[in-house]
Amino acid sequence: MASKPGILTDWPWTPLGSFKYIILIPWITESIYSFIVKDEKERDLTNIFIFPFMLWRMLHNQLWISLSRYRTAKGSNRIVDKGIEFDQVDRERNWDDQILFNAILFYLGNKYIPGASHLPVWRSDGVIITMLLHAGPVELLYYWLHRALHHHYLYSRYHSHHHSSIVTEPITSVIHPFAEHIAYFALFAIPLLTILLSGAGSIFAFAAYVTYVDLMNNMGHCNFELIPECLFSIFPPLKYFMYTPSFHSLHHTQFRTNYSLFMPIYDYIYGTMDKSSDTLYENSLKRKEESPNVVHLTHLTTPESIYHLRLGFASLASKPYSSTWYFWLLWPVTLWSMMLTWIYGRTFVVERNRLYKIRLQTWAIPKYKIQYRMKWQKEFINNLIDEAILKAEDKGARVLSLGLMNQGEELNRYGGLYVHKHPQLKVMLVDGSSLAVAVLLNSIPKGTTQVLLRGNLTKVAYAVAFALCQKGIQVAVFREDEYEKLNNSFGTKSEDKLVLSKSYSYKTWLVGDELTESEQRKATKGTLFIPFSQFPPKKLRKDCFYHTTPAMQTPMELENVDSCENWLPRRVMSVWRIAGLVHALEGWEEHECGYTMSNVEKVWEASVKHGFQPLRVPTQSKS
Predict the structure, then answer these.
(1) Which pLDDT band holds residue 2 (cuts at 50, 70, 90)?
(2) Which of 53, 159, 507, 562 could staple 149 via S-S, CB 3.0–4.6 A?
(3) pLDDT, tens digit, for every residue of 588-622?
(4) What residues contact 138, with CB distance under 8 A and at least 6 apart?
């Protein structure tokens, strides 16, 4: 919001929140009904076209958002190095408001403006008039309107809201107060009203012009340079008639230069062209893909998880993962994304972060949780992980951490398979098991004398159970086979603290993947469930407490944090991801994978030293 919000700052439908689209229902209903009941000659294609065109605009914007986030994560041709944070994502959450606003005005115009209904699909004279009017009056008027908005009175009340984003994303282009959008629509309506009133209007002219405005707006705010230098070499005057992302980026970093809309000619004419425009453009084009120090290798979890990735819907990615009812409306997109991951079948960059001088990139394997449980997918997934490890080494990464199911015992023996296959591997493989154990031990409430261990016995489960027994805490298990495995592993070192039990009265449960619903329902009221697995258990009990999967609060020095890691809260990172960062920060030259584990106390102390903090246990936060 602007520093001193003026009148008409908020959108009229702001109080409706996520239900704002209901205001379009009467218009869409009337449009569809009219199209169905009227004869073919009386049907208005212009009217029925408005709704699908609105959907196209949303898709167009989303494609730009995903492309921009992917390219800036990789680092090639990136313009501004700074990252974005959650406050910017929250501020830009309602980027679709302007599409909703435009749709209402298009419906009103179609109904009440003479010549705005029953438009032909194509008229060449209307297209030419639109182009000329945009290049002349629209560009000139916008330039002076923009300069006026930078006057301290209007800037503090309106335009400062847009400039709160120093590092821009495509959707930053439409983040303005309601009053500004009224002015912008009036400006862009000049060509459209002219061709309507002159009888030269067409559906193509309308759609092409609005799409052109969206395209240029998104491109100018995408924070990576994509206009090839050869265009300006072939036709040098083009630099006066087409701006570049780096050109407009300077307006957001310098504020008092490069005011033009899409054609820099008016900045040249009125002397407001930033002198560093050409240099920044050239340097951005030369910028190579960033080399990470640490790579965290994760994977997709469910078909809908693609929307929660940073490359997906920014607003969803900024909140912990949860299944949403309206996802079923997106099933064609979900199916398309599944087909794409199946065909593409290569690891892709999801996001980048920086902690102190360490550059972290997160890469994703295009496979879902269910595929990791299919035996016939095992070899293919292992090959993808193996390729990612070698690729990370080629890029100069010092550490690669294995996240989620990329470190399964049945899949690759907790990552040990790759060290055995590549004994000369220079990149250190980390499964984060020692830090997971440390976090679990520090999550158990003080004064606890006994815990119940339930779930698939993993490397972490064995280590936690052993450590608890050494601390004098009784560890109970339900199943005889689990008891035998643990007892054989401990030998005589369990201090008689490992017991076989049928009681559900334990107040602290350490749970893994095989915890059943019936077992969970038998727990006593107030039980604390602490997962040691990669995935959290389903929360069935409202009268119990559920801790997160092993994770820690990140230090404020961690940059470019604008998305949540799966189901974890904001600025909370899984220990498997943290372990790779700590490994690199400490400069440890050893693998932590397979059946080996680093010193738990040493890893914990290093993590805390670098600013990572334990999360509060739910029972403590409510006491």
Answers:
(1) confident
(2) 159
(3) 999 999 999 999 999 999 999 999 999 999 874 44
(4) 187, 188, 190, 191, 261
**Residue 470 CA neighbour count, 13 Å, CB half:** 10
| Max intra-chain CA distance, the chain | 94
Q: Tell me the CA distances in angstroms from 9 to 4, 149, 176, one per residue in order.
A: 10, 14, 8
Please state, in angstroms and rounded to a whole number, the distance separating the CA atoms of residues 251 and 270: 15
CB–CB of 244/225 below 8 Å? yes
Tokens of 409: 């015992």
> Which residues of 448-532 form beta strands (DSSP E)?
450-454, 474-477, 498-500, 508-511, 528-531
Question: How does DSSP assign 243-294, residue by residue?
Answer: --HHHHHHHHHHSSS---SS-THHHHHHT---TTHHHHHHHHHHPPPPPPSE
pLDDT digits 0-9 by tens, 71-104: 999 999 999 999 899 999 999 999 999 999 999 9
pLDDT of the residue at 620: 46
Alpha carbons 362 and 298: distance in angstroms, whole number: 7
Contact by Cβ (8 Å): 403, 574? yes
Helix and strand counts by DSSP (H, E) for the chain = 26, 15
State pLDDT tens for residues 504-539.
Answer: 999 999 999 989 999 999 999 999 999 999 999 999
Whole-number average pLDDT of the chain: 94
Alpha carbons within 13 angstroms on the beta-carbon side of residue 164 total 23
Whole-angstrom Cα distance, residue 51 to residue 48?
7
The tens digit of pLDDT for each residue in 206-229 reads: 999 999 999 999 999 999 999 999
Write the DSSP assignment of 443-461 as a string of letters.
HSPTT--EEEEES---HHH
**Cα-Cα-Cα-Cα dihedral of 126, 132, 137, 142, to 10°?**
100
User: Within 10 Å of residue 185's Cβ, how many Cβ atoms?
Assistant: 14
Please tell me whether residue 428 adopts helix, strand or coil conformation. strand
Element (H, E) at 486: helix 480-490
The 3-state DSSP class for residue 598 equals coil
What is the Cα–Cα distance from 52 to 254, expressed in whole angstroms? 38
For the residues of 534-590, what is the DSSP string, one character each? SSPPP---TTSEEPPSSEEEPPTTEE---S--TTS-TTEEEHHHHHHHHHHHHT--S
Q: Could you report how far apart the first and last alpha carbons of the chain are, in Å?
A: 36
Residue 607's closest CA among 294, 320, 293, 355?
355
User: Residues with Cβ < 8 Å from 162, sequence gap 6 or more?
Assistant: 172, 175, 176, 180
Question: What is the three-class DSSP state of 396?
Answer: coil
Query: How far does CA 380 lie from the centroid of its chain?
Result: 27
53-59 LR contacts (CB < 8 Å, sep 24+): 53/207, 53/210, 54/99, 54/100, 54/102, 54/103, 56/211, 57/99, 57/102, 57/210, 57/211, 57/214, 58/96, 58/99
Structure-derived torsion over alpha carbons of residues 118, 123, 125, 129, reported in degrees to the nearest 10: 60
Between CA 126 and CA 134 the distance in angstroms is 12
Please tell me what DSSP assigns to residue 135.
Answer: I
47 secondary structure, DSSP code:
H
CB 458 within 8 A of CB 482: no
Determine contact, residues 251/36, Cβ cutoff 8 Å. no
Give the separation between CA 292 and CA 358, rounded to whole angstroms: 8
**CA angle, 376 then 382 then 384, to 5°:** 110
